[in-house]
Amino acid sequence: AKISLTNAPCVGGGSVDAEMHLIYGISTDPSIAMNAVERFLDAKPDTVETAARATAEGALRQYLHDHGGEAVRSDPERFREELALHLHEELSALRLVAHAAYPRVRATHAA
Rounded to two decimals, what is the model's pTM? Predict the structure, then answer.
């Protein structure tokens, strides 16, 4: 799934344009797999994608808002690591898992 954000607000003012490519799936963790199957058993594939996309977009917006574009640009490795942890927590609640996430800040805009 590709998530694109334009003018996502940041702490301290300003905004960020960002995008993220996300590879996700239904969790195979035995402790929650049955719950995942029950949750998505009768769902159409686009329902799962919509849930994953909305959750990932929310996680990306929250991270950018809390940290700001310049902080993200100054330490992109930390950005990817912290966002991956946040995505894991958020997607786990839906019984989904992120296999890979590739976020990138395209531009920052002053307040």
Answer: 0.86
Can you read off the two tokens belonging to residue 71? Answer: 């902080």
Burial class (CB in 10 A: 0-12, 13-18, 19+), 60: buried
- Span 54-94, pLDDT tens digits: 999 999 999 999 988 777 878 889 988 999 999 999 998 88
CA distance 2 to 21: 5
The token duo for 74 is 């100054």
Neighbours of 83 (CB within 10 A): 22
Contact 60, 95 (CB under 8 A): no
CA 56, 99, 47, 40 torsion-angle sign:
negative
